[in-house]
Amino acid sequence: MTESADEKSKRMELLVEVIECSSNRAKSACPPPQGKQRVAVCMSGGVDSSTTALLMQQSGFDVVGVTGWLIKSGSRCCDTGMIDAARVCEQLGIEHYAVDLRELFKAEIVDSFHQSYAKALTPLPCSLCNTVIKWGALLDYSRGHLGAHYMATGHYARIERAEHGVRLARSQDRKKDQSYVLWGLTGEQLKNTLLPLGDYTKEQIRQIAASANLATADRPDSQDLCFIPGGQSTQEYLAQFLEDNPGPIIHAISGDRVGVHKGTHNFTIGQRRGLGIAWGEPLYVTFIDPLSRAVYVGPRESLLGRELTASAVNWLAGQEPDAPFEALAKIRYNSPVERAVITPMPDRCVKVTFETPQPAITPGQVLGIYDLSDTYLLGGGWIDGLTGLADR
């Protein structure tokens, strides 16, 4: 996603406001005890980040907890998450800092979410939040104001350190592996990051939390986006911000007009339910054209595609490949990796050619690129689609 000079200036102004709104006690935080390195644990109030703080403390670090205040009001994450994070920090005898990131979060994450759907993209805001909020504002705040050497999070992934640099590896618990959503991190950010949960299973983490009587040991995992109120679907939420803009529903194979919709933001590639079409066979959304407002539908086999393009590609090692190479790639969080040829293109773009066709390649989602052993995340980017680069 290309950022103009004005947009960058506005973002930096917001970041300055965030730092100025931080608590006064953070600005005069005590330095870590002699011989100890300070780690700021990014705490959401969940069991994973709570146990991360415990493990860091047990490892001999000087630990402080830091939580981003992200939503203005009515959020289960910020209304209860900050309180739970503070409770755990009190249990552990460590300081807790809440950083006011509400304006930055709205501008960079929430507004971007709305704009993406208006452009017929299906965004992954949690991945963008990792880059902009956690490893952006919170990491900068922790290092600049709390004197932290590292930031730790409750993500299930591993960082391997060697003389030649750092690599981001999959979690030992493949069912919980979250390396995919960390594709936007730089090598420098990885050097300043600790991910202690990568060597554990989720069950082990809950056991550790329970044995330490952490206040969040039994807190259920969050399944929804933090800024969408509980009980609302994505479409119900978007209806408050995006106006109805009707258009045709077209059969992708016959070209026949088979229905009318109220707005492209109500659809995503691969969607089957809620189409409002009576047809002799199941139909799926195969393509969304934001310019003509047309939604194309077809049988399941019409979802398959062998090639995609992705933009704003980040290579974790910092060095962009200069020739096509074979790798494993995945096109959504819960999809398996598939063998593919990755071809570098100008302007931080790549073309990906899969060995076997993939279902429902969705613009706006993340492309994750792994090495052939399926151990290390090499990089990633935003999927533009099957037919060239979209205007992001």
Treating each run of at least 4 consecutive H or I residues as one helix, how many helices? Answer: 9
What is the helix/strand order? HHEHEHEHHEEEHEHHEEEEEEEEEE
Q: What is the total number of structural domains?
A: 3
Separation, N- and C-terminal Cα atoms: 6 Å
Unreliable runs: 14-28, 387-392
Which range best describes the helical content: under 10%, 10-25%, 25-40%, 40-55%, 55-70% or over 70%? 25-40%
Radius of gyration: 22 Å
Extended strand count: 17
Q: What oligomerization state is this entry in?
A: single chain
Short characterization:
The protein is α/β, with parallel strands linked by helices and 392 residues long. It has nine helices and 17 strands.
List the helices and strands and how they pair.
Blueprint: H1 5-20, H2 24-27, E1 38-42, H3 47-58, E2 62-69, H4 76-92, E3 96-100, H5 102-118, H6 125-145, E4 150-152, E5 157-162, E6 165-170, H7 187-191, E7 193-194, H8 202-211, H9 234-238, E8 247-251, E9 257-261, E10 284-289, E11 294-298, E12 304-315, E13 325-330, E14 338-345, E15 349-359, E16 366-370, E17 377-385
Parallel strand pairs: 1-2, 1-4, 2-3, 4-7, 8-11
Antiparallel strand pairs: 5-6, 8-9, 10-11, 12-15, 12-17, 13-14, 13-16, 14-15, 16-17
Helix pairs in contact: 1-5, 3-4, 3-8, 5-6
What does this structure look like?
The chain has helices at residues 5-20, 24-27, 47-58, 76-92, 102-118, 125-145, 187-191, 202-211, 234-238; strands at residues 38-42, 62-69, 96-100, 150-152, 157-162, 165-170, 193-194, 247-251, 257-261, 284-289, 294-298, 304-315, 325-330, 338-345, 349-359, 366-370, 377-385. The protein is of the alpha/beta class and 392 residues long. The protein folds into three domains: 5-25 and 35-211, 3-Layer(aba) Sandwich (Rossmann fold), CATH 3.40.50; 243-298, Roll (SH3 type barrels); 305-385, Elongation Factor Tu (Ef-tu), domain 3, CATH 2.40.30. The strands form four sheets. It has a six-stranded antiparallel β-barrel with strand order 12-15-14-13-16-17. A five-stranded parallel beta sheet has the order 3-2-1-4-7, sandwiched between helices. Strand 10 and strand 11 form a beta hairpin. Helix 3 (47-58) runs parallel beside helix 4. 41% of the residues are buried.
